[in-house]
Amino acid sequence: MKQLIVDGISKEFKGKIALHKCSFTATPGSCVVLCGGNGAGKSTMINIIAGISLLKQGSVTFGETNLALKPKEYLGQIGYMPDDYHAQGTLSVREFLMFYASIRRISKERVAEVMNIIGLTEQSSTLVKSLSKGMKQRLLFGQSILSDPPLLIMDEPTNGLDPYWVDRFIEILKNLRQNGTIILFSTHMMDVAAEIGTDIIFMKQGKIIEVLNSSHSMQDNITRLMQLHRC
Ligand SMILES: Nc1ncnc2c1ncn2[C@@H]1O[C@H](COP(=O)(O)OP(=O)(O)OP(=O)(O)O)[C@@H](O)[C@H]1O
């Protein structure tokens, strides 16, 4: 089974350090959650591991595949959900998913299955630009799980989700974890992190300052995360 190994990754923007020598390992079935205040470096970390931002220092390896050495092979194994919606709004929900499915040679049956998972079957003909914020988030999430990737990377996936869909999202992720999927996402929602995270990485000023894990109780982790947010 494949591991994700992030080793000493760093990033600067015009001389300003956004990420400093960050390392962690994720094993199959684990869920790594990045927490931290605004500007802590969460999106920078996600963007590097998802291959959106160029990796100049450190390495990212999934199984035997090194991101810098074999980007195509690496990217073919990940699902990625961005933090914002930039795609063509004049496609319908179904067309949007079919577009991504065609790139990855995914069947229309799988597209129907994913529409059902994200609760947008009734909206299959609705234009993406007419969806609510939460529905767009669910659609982006659906796109990221279409290929049933062994590594799923998401930036603030619960933004805009109502409480019912936050619970559903956690349930879906738990099912994916049972199948061995490695999940990595960032969030400001401490309860979500504590509920699903097997490894909760707390970041500050581009550094990993603490890692909490599922050997602690959920309430302990929420309390600790709240304390870390204040410091
Ligand atoms: N494209 C960019 N150009 C310049 N600086 C950037 C850029 N992207 C991020 N930064 C800087 O890098 C640092 C980390 O930003 P990042 O977006 O990773 O934080 P974050 O933890 O995701 O924050 P938030 O919770 O607000 O989304 C910040 O100081 C930010 O200003």
TrEMBL record:
Coiled coil: none
PROSITE patterns linked: ABC_TRANSPORTER_1, ABC_TRANSPORTER_2
Annotated GO MF terms: ATP binding
Span of domain ABC transporter: 4-230
Gene3D superfamilies membership: P-loop containing nucleotide triphosphate hydrolases (3.40.50.300)
Keywords assigned by UniProt, alphabetized: ATP-binding, Nucleotide-binding, Transport
Alphabetical list of SMART domains matching this protein: AAA
Pfam families: ABC_tran
PANTHER family reported for this sequence: ABC TRANSPORTER ATP-BINDING PROTEIN ALBC-RELATED
Protein name: ABC transporter ATP-binding protein
Organism: Cytobacillus mangrovibacter
